[in-house]
Structure formats: structure tokens, C-alpha cells
Recover the amino acids of this structure.
């Protein structure tokens, strides 16, 4: 069974946010540091990378390899809509994030230290296809967060 370094740190962030106003300010600064390095779009109902998606992921590999994990945290965020057919939206979103993570891992981009997230988003009329995506996001490691090994939540 594959293990991924997922963010138990998200739970720590929530606890630290409740701890004090100072911690709340640090948490706010952490989320404000969010930078989208790249967005990979998927066909509706698909969790597989197409050629264009693979090219987008490959273009990010050199930049991701050069990130200092002590200073930057990488999160692959998958998205889907409730209107897509098949498994539930969160599972589909997670599988999109896994597809990107798997390709980054195969290319030696340090994906074993990336966290993964999946979420369902509401699509606005005429913009449904933009919700079928995965984003490679970088945060400043302002809270000195370090990933830990856990078993994946979703198994294929």
C-alpha cells in the first residue's frame, strides 16, 4: 500500500487558530501566502491526465524540485462538481490530485512530501469545465510544518 505524506498539519493549523489571536494571524498569513504554480484541467467525469495535462505537470517538475521543503509547502488540490457522474465528487477530486501526484512522483519531483486534498465546488453557469481540475499550490512554511507519513485515505 502506498503511503503519502498528507497534511496532518491541517488539523494542527485549526488547533493553532483556536489557541490565540496571534496564532489566528499566523494562520491568516499562511493562507495568504497561497500561490498556484499550475492548474491541470480534466475532462468531465475523468480522473486521468490527457496529453495536455501531462505536459503541464512536466513543465512544473524543475520548479518543484528546487523548492526548499523547510520554506515551502506543496499541496495538490483536486476539484470536481456534484454534477459529474460516477463516484462521489470528493473521491473524484482526490483521484485527480492523485493523478497529478503520481506523475510528479514518477518524475522525481519530491511528491512524497506533498499533501493532497479534494473538494467539490459549485460550478457557475457556463463555467462547469473549470471546476474539473487539480491545482499545484505552494504555501510559505510560516508555521514550520513538516509532513508525516500516513496511509492514503482513498485506495484505487
Amino acid at each position: 500500500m502506498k503511503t503519502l505524506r498528507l497534511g496532518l498539519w491541517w488539523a494542527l493549523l485549526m488547533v493553532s487558530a483556536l489557541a490565540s489571536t496571534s496564532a489566528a494571524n499566523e494562520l491568516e498569513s499562511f493562507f495568504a501566502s497561497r500561490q498556484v504554480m499550475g492548474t491541470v484541467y480534466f475532462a468531465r467525469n475523468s480522473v486521468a491526465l490527457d496529453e495536455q495535462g501531462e505536459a503541464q505537470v512536466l513543465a512544473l517538475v524543475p520548479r518543484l524540485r528546487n523548492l526548499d521543503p523547510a520554506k515551502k509547502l506543496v499541496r495538490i488540490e483536486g476539484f470536481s462538481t456534484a454534477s459529474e457522474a460516477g463516484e462521489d465528487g470528493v473521491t473524484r477530486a482526490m483521484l485527480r490530485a492523485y493523478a497529478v501526484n503520481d506523475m510528479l512522483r514518477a518524475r522525481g519531483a519530491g511528491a512524497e512530501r506533498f499533501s493532497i486534498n479534494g473538494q467539490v465546488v459549485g460550478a457557475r453557469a457556463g463555467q462547469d469545465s473549470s471546476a474539473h481540475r487539480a491545482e499545484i499550490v505552494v504555501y510559505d512554511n510560516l508555521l514550520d510544518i513538516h509532513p508525516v507519513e500516513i496511509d492514503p485515505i482513498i485506495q484505487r
